[in-house]
Design goal:
globular; mainly alpha; about 75% helix; about 240 residues
């Protein structure tokens, strides 16, 4: 029986989590700096020389950057699936514990619960970018590990779901969708590089709402996992939209 991926609740949550992660307060404001750093193109010469050549340079390095963080995220998904299968006998307890953890992460995202160590921003600072496309790949991999407060709660939720899957391919699928959700707005930012600061200035307020939405999703998802209704809901939707 084939299930339409679009109606897969886990897949949709993974995609939404990646998208909302991009608009978090410690990711979105830094996107222009990353585009400048990985491509070597400054705002001055891009505005002065708006040619296909410069646009292509930014886009190509952005793709390498995305490949870097996607590689790390998918690797984490594989690890979660393997660990989940290894601890299959205790999966019921792991799911419930994961649900409680997600509720805590949701409350943290809404500033209701204080978790001091998550407020410590962990950045790996590079004085010089490694050379070429590989350099952009390395920066992307570094990016994926750097912002625990913003990316961590959303990423954790998808990794917990990945740990409940029976196949490693399911973990790859979920973390690929998470990476896609993060990648699409990043690519759009690269294409609109010369207008990016204007958009950030005018629409930067979305960061406040993205964090609140993510917090709400984490709490709802945590409740479903902790009460074992998540699996039931997934099966129901799978039957409803399958053929």
């Amino acid at each position: 029986m084939f299930v339409i991926s679009f109606f897969d609740i886990s897949g949709l949550l993974a995609l939404a989590a990646g998208f909302l992660s991009f608009f978090s307060p410690c990711v979105l404001p830094l996107v222009p700096s990353y585009l400048v750093f990985i491509s070597g193109i400054t705002f001055d010469n891009y505005n002065e020389l708006k040619t296909k050549k410069y646009r292509k340079v930014v886009l190509i390095h952005s793709v390498a950057f995305i490949a870097g963080f996607s590689f790390v995220f998918v690797s984490l998904g594989i690890s979660s699936s393997i660990l989940g299968n290894f601890l299959a006998d205790y999966q019921e307890y792991i799911i419930k514990a994961g649900g409680v953890f997600l509720i805590a992460m949701g409350l943290f995202s809404l500033n209701i619960l204080r978790i001091p160590f998550l407020n410590q921003e962990k950045l790996v600072r590079l004085e010089k970018k490694p050379i070429g496309m590989f350099g952009s790949f390395v920066i992307g991999a570094t990016f994926s590990l750097g912002w625990t407060p913003c990316v961590g709660p959303a990423l954790s939720s998808i990794l917990i779901v990945a740990s409940t899957t029976k196949r490693i391919s399911d973990g790859i699928y979920l973390l690929s969708l998470y990476s896609l959700g993060l990648a699409v707005p990043f690519i759009l930012s690269a294409l609109l590089f010369d207008k990016l600061l204007y958009f950030l200035k005018r629409y930067g307020f979305v960061m406040r709402y993205s964090t609140k939405i993510m917090g709400g999703l984490l709490i709802v998802m945590g409740v479903f996992l902790a009460t074992s209704y998540y699996t039931t809901l997934t099966l129901m939707l799978g039957q409803l939209f399958s053929f």
